[in-house]
From TrEMBL:
Pfam family, one: Rep3_N
Species this protein is from: Arcicella aurantiaca
Name of the molecule in the record: Replication initiator protein
Superkingdom in the source lineage: Bacteria
Family that this chain belongs to: Belongs to the initiator RepB protein family.
InterPro entries: Initiator_Rep_WH1, WH-like_DNA-bd_sf, WH_DNA-bd_sf
Residue intervals of the Initiator Rep protein WH1 domain: 10-149
One example of a Gene Ontology biological process annotation: DNA replication initiation
Molecular-function annotations in GO: DNA-directed DNA polymerase activity
């Protein structure tokens, strides 16, 4: 059974809710959200109870652990908060969960009165690639990924109350900031850096005495990180002497199929030499995407024009 959608969409009130799920339970929830048909300004009276089917093999975990997760999932609670209206809703979204080992699936039920909370997008929503969310092995990574995806267009999430963040992440047990930093934020930061399409940094933004009370998060998309990598690499190149630059360029040129004339032209023209190294860096770091023939592309960038015919064929 394939994915219903490549990207999950969920209301921001779900993204920012307090959730009690374990990592495996959260993966089940991610598959449920993937199957929900979301929309805008939907009449809640039209909703009915819904059932979702998830292949057990998709969860890629020990079957006994999956069984335990199914047993616990139907009692897990999410807490929805509307601060403007001073309203709090405590919801048990999945009242029935069946583990059907012989059929190789899990069935999850959601009651009609809960469905609107997961469906209505008109007050803001979060979207993220399901494949990436499923790769994350820490519940804190999973939750931070969702939350930061909801903020990525802003590039930052500022002045975040530390105690409220602990509450949202179901991580109040880490009373000391140093423990929360080490066991929640640093783990999420490392895993997102390795597996996700966004990265983040954070630092304390407010303190009461020596006690950290608020944090600032800065979010980098994959593209922004790629641009930064290129800029850093070019800053390093600027510190080299001409001999070192030519040696580096010669090594890079060995991966292209340029003619001897084109090779010579690049190596003897400082402008072309710098442009070549920078464009190659953009290709390597993913700033330039979907380039099928990098030699032909580079020939165009360097202004060889019709000289592109001089490119050697493999």
């Amino acid at each position: 059974m394939g994915l219903s959608k490549i990207e999950n969409q969920q209301p921001n009130i779900i993204t920012m809710s307090r959730q009690e799920f374990s990592m495996i339970e959260k993966r089940i929830v991610l598959y449920v959200i993937n199957q929900i048909k979301t929309g805008f300004n939907i009449n809640p009276e039209l909703f009915q109870n819904q059932t979702f089917t998830i292949p057990i093999a998709n969860l890629k975990s020990n079957y006994n652990e999956i069984k335990k997760s199914c047993k616990k999932l139907n009692s897990r609670q999410i807490t929805l908060v509307n601060e403007e209206l001073d309203e709090v809703s405590y919801i048990t979204p999945f009242p029935r969960v069946d583990y059907l080992g012989k059929s190789g699936v899990i069935k999850v039920w959601m009651f009609a009165d809960v469905v609107p909370h997961f469906v209505e997008l008109s007050k803001g929503y979060t979207k993220y690639p399901l494949e990436i969310a499923l790769q994350l092995d820490s519940i804190y990574s999973q939750r931070m990924y969702e939350i930061l995806c909801s903020k990525k267009d802003l590039g930052a999430w500022l002045n975040v109350d530390l105690e409220k963040l602990k509450h949202i992440l179901n991580a109040e047990k880490y009373e000391r900031y140093s423990h929360f930093k080490q066991r929640v934020l640093d783990i999420a930061q490392k895993e997102l850096d390795e597996k996700a399409n966004i990265k983040f940094t954070y630092e304390p933004s407010r303190k009461e005495g020596k006690k950290v009370t608020h944090l600032d998060f800065h979010i980098l998309t994959e593209q922004e990180q790629a641009v930064m990598n290129v800029e850093s690499e070019m800053d390093s190149v600027a510190l080299l002497n001409i001999g070192q630059i030519m040696a580096q360029a010669s090594q890079i040129l060995s991966t292209y199929n340029f003619s001897a004339n084109q090779y010579k032209e690049i190596m003897t023209d400082n402008r072309l030499l710098t442009l070549f190294i920078e464009e190659d860096s953009k290709i390597v770091h993913g700033v330039r995407k979907n380039i099928k023939n990098k030699s032909a592309y580079m020939a165009t960038v360097l202004g060889f024009g019709n000289k592109k015919k001089d490119i050697k064929k493999k």
